[in-house]
Amino acid sequence: MGVVSEEAIDEFLELIDQVEEPLKKTFENVHQGYLREHLSRFLKARDWNLCKAHTMLVECLRWRVDNEIDSILSKPIVPSELYRNVRDSQLIGMSGYTREGLPVFAIGVGLSTFDKASVHYYVQSHIQINEYRDRVLLPSMSKKNGRPITTCVKVLDMTGLKLSALSQIKLVTIISTIDDLNYPEKTNTYYVVNAPYIFSACWKVVKPLLQERTRKKVHVLSGCGRDELLKIMDFTSLPHFCRRGSSGSSHHGESVDCFSFDHPFHQQLYNYVKHHYETQGQAEPAKQGSFHVGFPEPEAERVQIAKTIESELHKFENCNGLCKPADDRKASP
Question: What distance in Å separates the CA atoms of residue 59 and residue 41, rounded to the nearest whole number?
Fold first, then answer.
């Protein structure tokens, strides 16, 4: 960081020291001892404008207090069959770590259907993964590596992306807005793989709408992206959908579906939440309502991006079958 950046963080520290006690307490769960690194995230998200960054962080902390986010890791989605349904339709998982120690999160953008539970369960699950990443995984890796590790990388699988994505734009916008406003700058790089033509067309019109900082984070890789991803991670950390056609597959056994409820990451997360619920002195609930979280209003940029994607997908919808669905495309051998 340059001198200007350090001075901005010093000023930010003074401002945050003045917030009321409940906000200070929840901020401890946000920074996990890496105070300066986390203040820099909010400054980056607001182009180093201290006033705007301070407003953003205070609003984030109020959102956490108002929605009891600090306790979300003791709110299991039960019964387990319901959580399995969420996992089967909201495809996200952690496949391993980069060689620098950053968690690798895989997201099945094209095949997520979000049709087996209410919106609130999907939002609850997403926030729980964020909080588990920030309060358990990243502090653990920071300690293991002897340096702050506060970000992750995401591999976005576009397999199966088609016009039905129109019905999911509202939910995806809600989740993206929660991330933008309350978990800013947590993703170091986005790697897009298995992209069909429909993605390429949408990306062409969306890319100019993104801030330069965000554009630089997005890397659209050829095919399943295996060769490029192996430059930053070992084969064992590759998401299962990036291992197609690998001569090394036979040496590593069958690829494990990191989206599955049975994957070690999801088992660890689910058991962690269940354990923290039980330590409150209560038996596991047979049934529980979803954890309702207030949905923040999306920023103008996010609204414009959603409208642009929706418009582009409608163009495909009206092209009378000229656009072949991604499902019909043959996967690389």
Answer: 15
